[in-house]
Structure formats: C-alpha cells, structure tokens
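[job 0412] stage=fold_complex status=start
inputs:
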Amino acid sequence: MSKTIIKPTSSLEKVLSGEELNFNDGLELINDENLFLLGAAADRIRKELVGDNVSFVSSYYLNYTNICVASCQLCAFYRREKDEDAYTLTPKQIVQRAEIAVNDLGATELHIVGGFHAKLGIEYYENMFRSIKLNFPKVIIKALTPAEIFFISKVTRNSIKEVLQRLKDAGLDALPGGGAEIFNKQTRDKIVLGKCSGDEWLDTVYQAHKIGLKGNCTMLFGHIEKPEDIVDHLIKLRDLNKKTKGFTTFIPLKFSLENTELEKQHTVISESPSTYDLRVIAVSRLLLYKTLKNVSVYWVALGKKLAQVALCYGGNDLVGTAFSEEIFKAAGKANHTSANELKFLINEIGRNPVQRDTFFNVIN
Ligand code: SF4
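[job 0412] stage=fold_complex status=done
writing structure:
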C-alpha cells in the first residue's frame, strides 16, 4: 500500500519560521493548504503568542434602533420607519436596559449598535452615553460601528473627527468593528447597499484610533466572497494596525443566511461549511500573525461546538456573553449563554477561561 505524504506549502513553512506572509502566500494557504496542517500551524502560533488562556468579556448588546435607511442584502435586522415592528429606544429605556445589564447580569461592557436612522441627531447619541455614564460610571461603552459613525457624520454634516470627539467627550470608550463586511468593492457592492465603502470604513477607524478610541475589527465571510477578498481584507486590517495599534482583536464573522435578501434572491443558497469556516479562521491567525495577537471566535454565529473547534484553529477569545443580541438572532441564530457556560466550553477543551474587559485586561 502506498503512503500519502502530506507536505506543508512554502507559505506555511515561511510563517512558521517567523516571516510575515504576503498576498500570494495568503492565497496559497486559503486555496491549497491541507486543512489539518493549516489548523496545526495556526494553533501553534496562537500558543506562542498568547498561551492557553481563552478570554471572554461579560457584555450586553443593546440595539438602540432597528430603523435603517440602508438596505443591505446581508441583513435580516433592519426595518423601515413605517414597519409595525420598527423601534427606537429612548435614553430612559436605554438606562433601564443598562441597569439590567450591569446590576442583574454583571456586564462590564455595553455593546451598542443600531440601524442608520436619518432622524437621530448627534445629541441623541450624546444623551445616551451621558445618561449611561451618569448612572453606571464604570461600565465600558463600546458603541457605534465605524459605518454608523460615517453615517452620522454625513447625516449631521459634521466631520468624522468632530463626531468622534463629541461622542468620546460624552462617554464613548471604544468602537465595535462591525460594518467592515468585506472591503473588495465588487463583492461589497453586491452585499451592502447604502453603507460606507471599505476605504471609508478604514479611514473612520484610523481617525478613531488617532484620538484614542480603540476597538475590534471584523470581516464577514461565507457569502459570495472569493479567496482573494479574504486575503485582501486581512492585509488591509494588518496594514492599518501597523500604523495605529488600535485594534483590540479581529473577529471573523460567519454570515448567517436566514431572512436576508441574499437568501430570498437565492444569491446564497446555504451557509458555508464548517471546514471553510475553520480555514478562514486559521488563515486569519497566520496572516495577522504578530501584528494583531487576538483572534476572536464568535460563538453566536458559529454555534458553540464549532466555536470550540475554532479555538483549536487559531482562536484565543470567545468574544463574550452577548446578552440580548438581536442582529444574528434576526438571521436565525439562537444565542443564550452565561459566563459560566463560556467557562465550561473553554474548560471542556482543556484551556483556561479568563474573564477580560473590553481592552483585554484580565479581570477574573
Ligand atoms: S447591515 Fe446595518 S446598515 Fe445595512 S441594512 Fe442592516 S442595519 Fe442597515
């Protein structure tokens, strides 16, 4: 019987010897590398960089409005103002939610995002943040994706810098990394409609980092993207972080299909296979390598069991408790958990659970 010898590609050898990968290397890995070798390499580099701890944050998701003037084909969350189930929370309702988050659930972070609501002035956001901080001065407000900041800047006719500074002065501590989707224009134009471009997203983040507003970064995969788009997206994030060092972690987000236009129009007929998800997570770890040391695994989109496997393919963070998450729920993902369940999932795979804050400081 002949033996099959599995040899690593030259790109894998390159990254394992400590060299940074270029675009062609990334393509070689995503297209040609044996999945198990890819995973083993990503796992080894994860261990070298951050050891065996797996972190998570106690976070509460607060979606202040689902009204949106955009119509992204990837989205199951948005509503028009006339829709029966459209809503916008008042500052009072937001403080009530914050009270549940902090006092009842022990959240250290409020993750606040919403639709592009054209009638909300910048004062709405300032009041929201000031009211939260007045009542809960210690909670971290991680709010408004760069795409929302860009929209608020356009609709209120303030510069991005001014919007960021005013919101920071009102209590904003960090930005979530949503809205990045996929940067390549041709692909992006087929999955989003009415959202900033990839370059505008990157520029908004650059300006946020410049005034000390750090945050995570994301990439939406598993829809219509090509391998080139994944590699291009990761290298753009890597280049930006070399300049600013403002990203706390990278979160690859698996696309959820249910109730989206991409599903209704049969543009995407099924969600990506788990082998592809693991490949993307491993390649992310290898391409970002020393530039961004945290790679987060979003259990809400992947499911809890696949999230455990992804932690062995380069991931070192489980994002968080995501209490009250609405956006992936609208696209068919169940999302209940607790800090204890996250600890259990981490212990089950022989790693050490660590509770962190938004900025990856260990708090427990
Ligand atoms: S993804 Fe965001 S911007 Fe696009 S339609 Fe949904 S809520 Fe609106």
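[job 0412] summary: The two ends are 54 Å apart (CA to CA).
[job 0412] exit 0
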